[in-house]
Amino acid sequence: MATKLVDLVYWRKTTKTGVVFTGLVVSLASLFQLSTITVLSHLCLGVMCVTFTLRLYYKLLELLRWNPGVHPFQSYLDHDSSLTDKDTVMLVEEVVLLIAFAVTEIKRLLFIESMIDSIKFVGLLYLLSYVGVVTSGLTLVITAVIVAFSLPLLYKKQQMRIRRMVRAVKALVKRITDLCLGLYASVRPSPAAAPTLASATALKQKAKSK
After folding, report:
1. What does DSSP assign to residue 114?
2. pTM, whole model, 2 decimals?
């Protein structure tokens, strides 16, 4: 499944990826005007119009003895989509682990186990509240689909240029980080200064006592 997904995203089979990408975008865009049940029903009806027409065509060829009785979708019918007991157990374990990890992370963020992580989570929620006002979740899903199918192809075609840009950004970030660390080191008192001041104070106290 992962290999098929990578092949789709990287457009290794242009026709198949184009059909999947267009179908996803059109289906999601249809949800703006129609309900999910209506969109799914129309999609199934559209697929059945194609499959039914092809099945009738092959049946007609069989009656005219121009076709030896080959089913046009026999390869899809013979494909075994069932899960073995081992695959089912592995799938259930992965789902349970993901749910447990999500619950643990949310609990950790909500009950402030780490101040920094919880502050980041608050910032993300605050940002999402503004995003929810400006746009809808469906728009974000459509944008995510377009980005998922576009960015890998863009990276594949502009790989050298993108790598140069990433290296330049990393160098700039490193330069700024080094500058901030240098400024912090120059402002912060050196560790040797504290003992020196303490010893000087002790000497003054001894001199006064004498």
Report:
1. S
2. 0.57
